[in-house]
Amino acid sequence: MRAHLHDSKDLWSTTLHQTLLCNCIEGEDDESDCAFHFQYMPMRNRIEVPRMLCEARKCKYALELVGFVPWGSDVKTTTPYGKTPTLKNYDKTKTKDLAHEKPIARYLASKLQLFGRDEDERAKIDEVYEQHWSTLRNNGLTHQGENFDMDQLLAITDREIDETPRFQDMRRVNSFSPSQRSLASLRVFDEILLQNQSMYLVGDALSLCDIALFETAYELFREESADFDIGERFNLKYLERFLAHIEDEHPTLREYMKSARRVPRYKRPGYVYINEQVKYWTSFYAT
């Protein structure tokens, strides 16, 4: 899978159409053993959090990767709204598909007991998840957008840092730089972690919003390169502690983030795949 993507150079040139069976043991090559079947293009973006929910519970799942070429010619018209991702055959009758990342993530979080202990916790988890989606995920446009851009963040000046207000004090339409909006968006979650004092965003157990934030924090602290201490420079010590806590307390997530099961990152605007070294784990099979 990775070899094909790097040979293709960018998302637009991908022609693969294959299914990966994840968290299966050797000899299990039947998709019927999987609890869930995802369908998505060969990129992280809107399928990464649903995958990580399954990885947190070491749940067996199938990931059907559809390259951009076959997506447009064969697959697009078979999905509920001509969009991706899709959770296929998710209902009891195994005949219906569920579309769009957020409904899929909420459904999985509920099924896998990662959505709070009661209605009050669930409402707060949903609130924080929505805050993450609308800022750090730029309403689904990955980590390079109007509200959050890692490249812009890492290039912020000392003066911009000093003049960045709290996110809560920014107007929706404002003249702050992309770097400042990115920093303000991140600091929201540092504040939440400070207030909760449990190493989790809501309550005292791992949930959907933690997994969403962990994915962003991991890319920033572990996959991006900077010639300075990111946590210290941006005053994100609670976010940095959160990242280390999730890695220590939830090893299945830590192992997944380093594994070959992850689709390579790409850089916009060309959607060109980044060739990164990864550690290969045994629970990865292609059919």
TrEMBL record:
Alphabetized InterPro entries for the sequence: Glutathione-S-Trfase_C-like, Glutathione-S-Trfase_C_sf, Glutathione_S-Trfase_N, GST_C, GST_superfamily, Thioredoxin-like_sf
Stretches assigned to the GST C-terminal domain: 118-266
GO MF entry, a single one: glutathione transferase activity
Gene3D superfamilies named among the record's database cross-references: 1.20.1050.10, Glutaredoxin
Record-annotated GST N-terminal domain positions: 34-116
PROSITE patterns: GST_CTER, GST_NTER
GO biological process, one term: glutathione metabolic process
Superkingdom of the source species: Eukaryota
Protein name from the UniProt record: Glutathione S-transferase
Organism of origin: Bathycoccus prasinos
Lineage: Eukaryota, Viridiplantae, Chlorophyta, Mamiellophyceae, Mamiellales
